[in-house]
Amino acid sequence: MSTRILIFDTTLRDGEQSPGATMNTQEKLLVAKQLEKLGVDVIEAGFPIASEDDFNAVSMIAKTIRNCQVAGLCRANNLDIDRAWEAVKSAKHPRIHTFISTSDIHLKYQLKKTRKQVLEDAVAAVKRARSYCDNVEFSAMDATRSDIDYLTKVIQAVVKAGAKIVNIPDTVGYIMPFEFGQLIRSLMENVDGIEDVIVSVHCHDDLGLAVANSLAAVKEGARQVECTINGLGERAGNASLEEIVMAIKTRKEAFGCTTGIATEQLFPTSRLVSKITGITCQPNKAIVGANAFAHESGIHQDGLLKEKLTYEIMTPQSVGIPESNIVLGKHSGRHAFRDRITELGYVLTDEELNLAFKRFKALCDVKKYVYDEDIEMIIMDEIYKIPEKYKLSYVTVVCGNMTIPTATVRVEIDGTVHQNAGFGDGPVDATFKAIRSIIKTESKVAKFYINAITGGTDAQGEAFVKLEEKGVSVIGKGVDTDIVVASGKAYVNALNKLEFVKRRKIGAL
Ligand SMILES: [Zn+2]
Q1: How far, in Å, is the centroid of ligand 1 from the Cα of 49?
Q2: Distance 44 CA to ligand 1 centre (A)
Q3: Which are the contacts of 306, defined by CB distance < 8 A and separation ≥ 6?
Q4: What is the DSSP string of 264-318?
Q5: Is the terminal CB of the chain with fewer CB neighbours within 10 Å at N or C?
Q6: Nearest-CA neighbor of 85 among 75, 93, 95, 77?
Q7: What is the per-residue pLDDT for 101?
């Protein structure tokens, strides 16, 4: 059996279904390019039938990415499969990923089909997909709550029908590692021809076991793991890519397997996904959290000074955590700025570079040191933004302890200027109210917070606003040295995202 574990990244499909993680096509493309650099084997780029935007993003990624397989998800019906193929066909290595539920609970309540019908649908779907390409993956949705004999029968049938990869998802994050290991072993022993296909797993983290379950399956012969950057995904999320990869690498003797991941790209990838989605990792997150390599205890620090191995099982450098930030400032020229951007992994056109450089210079006037985080925020804010129906062109506030906080704002809606004022419990509240008096919205502010991107009182403020409307949620972000302006930008950005998202439909696996 091969000892190479394929890493199937579904950040752009399952991860993107995470509340507030919606990305536009340009952002998805940026993440896909970084995933290629990271060395994932398969990028699941989206669910092409879900919406026009999903379709376009998958096609664009298929046309751009050359070193990874690009997969499109589809349910087990002709329309879905045809659409998925249409989106991925220009990829250098296309893959069709089709799925249907196999658990009685899904059959009865969701699909309203018999086991026999579902089995036939699964086989027909695989055959249809195979008529387009050899690289076909089949997923038995809710496999871990399915009757094992029936699941075995379905997997047997799709292998016979020509599926090259069979995926066993723990869709609801229900199974225990020892049970999952047994399930995979049972399939390996009881499905004829399984040695000629790749067994894959796809785990969710509802009980905090997605990574443990995936690794238990690898131990029993699974050779593809589906996972996401930062464990982003539906509900509690998917198995975290960085944790899977570093477990297999750090405990090589326990698994006897390898992945093709360039592990020093893990941290940059994690950071990029956080910046784009606005969903940051908790500081104690394994591998990529801010404190993952910080040793506070005196005994540990003493031990580390004597010998790294005393308390360190892997080095921060091995996952790409930089030792120091190179700092730019007022005297840094265009050349240094461009070099730094390239080193950070961004590819900008001349026009985009001009825009970013102008903003960088403006920042240098108000801030002595410009850090990598500042540059990334400029790029996110200036270059990779969603279509702007609304634009905040002016904001001024009056506040203090002897006045009612008042804000005057000017907002452009599709190019037409509107102006109004509002007051509130604080400058941010007043700003939001003034914006809301111009942009009529039914959305509610579910969360609002501000981070200082870098240290010092001249730091740029990074504001996040989470909006909710009829079950849809988005996170907007804004950056400025003035935190009230940053907050206003974040609010308008969230309203723009909401407009964008409302046009979309979302599917699940
Ligand atoms: Zn999933």
Answers
A1: 17
A2: 11
A3: none
A4: GGHHHHHHHHHHHH--PPPTT-TTTSTTTT----HHHHHHHHH-GGGT-SS-GGG
A5: N
A6: 95
A7: 97
What pLDDT, in 10s, does the model give residues 47-66? 999 999 999 999 999 999 99
Ligand 1 mean position, distance from CA 297 (Å): 38
Residue 473 clears pLDDT 90, i.e. is over it: no
State the SS3 of 232-272: CCCCCCECEHHHHHHHHHHCHHHHCCECCCCHHHHHHHHHH
CB proximity list for 178: less than 8 A, separation 6 or greater: 216
Phi, psi (degrees; rounded to nearest 5) at 165: -130, 130
Task: Tell me how far the alpha carbon of residue 82 lies from the centroid of ligand 1, in angstroms.
Answer: 22
Amino acid at 163: A
Determine the distance separating the centroid of ligand 1 and the alpha carbon of 241, expressed in angstroms.
14
Pairing of β 6-9 and β 42-46: parallel
Query: Do residues 182 and 217 touch, judged by C-beta distance below 8 A?
Result: no
Question: Is pLDDT at 290 greater than 90 in this prediction?
Answer: no
